[in-house]
TrEMBL record:
<dbReference type="InterPro" id="IPR014729">
    <property type="entry name" value="Rossmann-like_a/b/a_fold"/>
</dbReference>
<feature type="binding site">
    <location>
        <position position="61"/>
    </location>
    <ligand>
        <name>(R)-pantoate</name>
    </ligand>
</feature>
<comment type="pathway">
    <text>Cofactor biosynthesis; (R)-pantothenate biosynthesis; (R)-pantothenate from (R)-pantoate and beta-alanine: step 1/1.</text>
</comment>
<dbReference type="InterPro" id="IPR004821">
    <property type="entry name" value="Cyt_trans-like"/>
</dbReference>
<comment type="subunit">
    <text>Homodimer.</text>
</comment>
<feature type="binding site">
    <location>
        <begin position="184"/>
        <end position="187"/>
    </location>
    <ligand>
        <name>ATP</name>
    </ligand>
</feature>
<protein>
    <recommendedName>
        <fullName>Pantothenate synthetase</fullName>
        <ecNumber>6.3.2.1</ecNumber>
    </recommendedName>
</protein>
<feature type="active site" description="Proton donor">
    <location>
        <position position="37"/>
    </location>
</feature>
<keyword id="KW-0963">Cytoplasm</keyword>
<keyword id="KW-0067">ATP-binding</keyword>
<dbReference type="GO" id="GO:0005524">
    <property type="term" value="F:ATP binding"/>
</dbReference>
<dbReference type="GO" id="GO:0005829">
    <property type="term" value="C:cytosol"/>
</dbReference>
<dbReference type="InterPro" id="IPR042176">
    <property type="entry name" value="Pantoate_ligase_C"/>
</dbReference>
<dbReference type="GO" id="GO:0015940">
    <property type="term" value="P:pantothenate biosynthetic process"/>
</dbReference>
<feature type="binding site">
    <location>
        <position position="153"/>
    </location>
    <ligand>
        <name>(R)-pantoate</name>
    </ligand>
</feature>
<feature type="binding site">
    <location>
        <position position="176"/>
    </location>
    <ligand>
        <name>ATP</name>
    </ligand>
</feature>
<feature type="binding site">
    <location>
        <begin position="147"/>
        <end position="150"/>
    </location>
    <ligand>
        <name>ATP</name>
    </ligand>
</feature>
Length: 281
């Protein structure tokens, strides 16, 4: 595995591999790799000649009340994990390398962002779309891999690729979970032992919603109330949102039919956790 910090060097390496006819799979991350990232890397490894993983904690997607400096980082461990999975290139640029000057152009996401996490994080997905636009130009991937746990991000990336005609195939990866169902996340390390036990309720509430829908309940508000009651009764977390929208459009629906998502976010003392479930009826 080769670790690269310079944009031009990364581009030159990729262009050389493309001239050799090799396909490029790309897994963009902010590091502190866990099993969710590993599953995406393995999928990329199975489907491409070359695998590139980027590690870059992107300051543009952190709001004024979000602590960019506190985001967990462990480059040495990330490098070991990536190399063990057969990654060819680890791209880990500095902020100064990615943003040497104040940007004169940015990407503004106009749809799919005024709900769910985007509602309370204005500008977050503009930052995501801007850095991905840069990374797609640097890495020139044939396929880009994103975890379905952050389903709103997947929806935004789908729009970015489609609207800007990037020659990139978006490949979503299923949410990877702990044994009790909690979605794996870098932020789980911030849960207290009691909160960690309670957090399993997030996935359990979505499973309860699935059972209710399969039994014939089609009213979104009924399902929302079911999930709310479970989380409020079984955890100390504060519900940020429990929402149901069409997917990937993320538009309101009055009846549970077609392709839709149930998504939730819950705040614990030092961690905000998200989860979701996508249906196709």
């Amino acid at each position: 595995m080769k670790t690269i910090e310079n944009i031009k060097e990364m581009q030159n390496e990729i262009l050389a591999r493309k001239r050799e006819g090799m396909s490029i799979g790309f897994v963009p991350t902010m590091g502190f790799l866990h099993e969710g990232h590993m599953s995406l890397i393995r999928k990329a490894r199975a489907e491409n000649d070359i695998v590139v993983v980027s590690i870059f904690v992107n300051p543009l997607q952190f709001g004024p009340n979000e602590d960019y400096e506190a985001y967990p980082r462990d480059m040495a461990q990330d490098s070991k994990l990536a190399e063990a999975e057969g990654v060819d290139y680890l791209f880990s640029p500095s902020v100064a390398e990615m943003y040497p000057n104040e940007p004169s152009v940015g990407v503004v996401v106009q749809k799919r962002t005024s709900v769910l996490c985007g509602k309370s994080r204005p500008g977050h997905f503009d930052g995501v779309a801007t850095v991905l636009t840069k990374l797609f130009h640097i890495v020139l991937p044939d396929r880009a891999y994103f975890g379905q746990k952050d389903a709103q991000q997947v929806a935004v990336v789908e729009g970015l690729i489609s609207d800007f005609n990037f020659p990139v195939e978006l490949v979503p990866g299923e949410t990877v979970r702990e044994e009790d169902g909690l979605a794996k996340s870098s932020r789980n390390v911030f849960l207290t032992p009691d909160e960690r036990k309670e957090a399993a309720c997030l996935h359990l509430s979505l499973e309860a919603a699935r059972a209710a829908i399969e039994s014939g309940k089609k009213n979104p508000e009924t399902i929302r109330e079911l999930i709310t009651t479970m989380i409020e009764n079984q955890t100390s977390g504060i519900i940020d949102y429990i929402e149901i929208y069409s997917y990937p459009e993320l538009e309101p629906i009055e009846e549970l039919k077609g392709r839709f998502i149930i998504a939730l976010a819950v705040r614990f003392s030092k961690a905000r956790l998200i989860d979701n479930m996508i249906f196709n009826l």
